[in-house]
C-alpha cells in the first residue's frame, strides 16, 4: 500500500464515513454482520530435488543450479467476525473481473448459509469492500442486489478501514 497525500475534503469524507459506521453500530450492532474479502498474490517456488543414496563420507554429484523463477498465485479470502467463510485460488493467468467476483460472491453466500446460517437467516450480511473497479461494476451491483447484500461505504485510499 502506498500512502496518498489526502486533501482536506478526502480527510473529511474519511471522518464522516467512520462516524456514520460507528453511529450505525451503536443503533444496530452491525460489526458481527460485516463480511469482507481481500485478494493477495502469493509467490512460491516449488523446486523438485533429486534424491540419491550416498555412502557415508562420499560427496554428492554437483548439479548445475536452475534459475529460480518464482511463480505466483492469487488467493481470495472471505471472512467475518466468526472466522473464514471461503477462500479460493485463481487459476494461473486469470485476473479478477466483475464476472469472477460475482462467482466468488455466489460461492461465498452458499458457504455462509451452510457455515453461519444465523448470519443469513436473521439479518442480512453487510459487505465491506474497497472501490476496486470490479467491486463497483454494474454487474457486481446487480449481483449484490440479487443476493440481498448491502455494501458499506468505503472511501478511496482507506485500506485501514477494512477489518
Automatic annotation (TrEMBL):
Coiled-coil positions: none
One Gene Ontology CC term in the entry: condensed chromosome
Gene Ontology BP terms: DNA double-strand break processing; DNA integration; double-strand break repair via nonhomologous end joining; mitotic DNA integrity checkpoint signaling; replication fork processing
Molecular function in Gene Ontology: DNA topoisomerase binding; double-stranded DNA binding; histone H3K36 methyltransferase activity; histone H3K4 methyltransferase activity; single-stranded DNA binding; single-stranded DNA endodeoxyribonuclease activity
Signal peptide: none
Protein name: Transposase
Species assigned in the record: Antheraea pernyi (Chinese oak silk moth)
Amino acid at each position: 500500500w502506498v500512502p496518498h497525500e489526502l486533501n482536506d475534503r478526502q480527510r473529511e469524507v474519511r471522518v464522516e464515513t467512520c462516524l456514520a459506521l460507528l453511529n450505525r453500530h451503536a443503533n444496530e450492532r452491525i460489526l458481527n454482520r460485516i463480511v469482507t474479502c481481500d485478494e493477495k498474490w502469493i509467490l512460491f517456488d516449488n523446486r523438485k530435488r533429486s534424491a540419491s543414496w550416498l555412502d557415508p563420507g562420499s560427496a554428492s554429484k554437483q548439479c548445475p543450479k536452475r534459475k529460480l523463477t518464482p511463480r505466483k498465485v492469487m488467493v481470495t479470502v472471505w471472512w467475518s467476525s466468526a472466522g473464514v467463510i471461503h477462500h479460493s485460488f485463481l487459476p494461473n493467468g486469470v485476473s479478477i473481473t466483475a464476472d469472477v467476483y460475482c462467482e466468488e460472491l455466489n460461492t461465498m453466500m452458499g458457504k455462509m448459509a451452510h457455515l453461519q446460517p444465523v448470519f443469513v437467516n436473521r439479518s442480512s450480511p453487510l459487505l465491506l469492500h474497497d472501490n476496486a473497479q470490479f467491486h463497483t461494476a454494474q454487474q457486481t451491483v446487480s449481483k449484490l442486489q440479487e443476493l440481498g447484500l448491502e455494501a458499506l461505504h468505503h472511501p478511496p485510499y482507506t485500506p485501514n478501514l477494512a477489518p
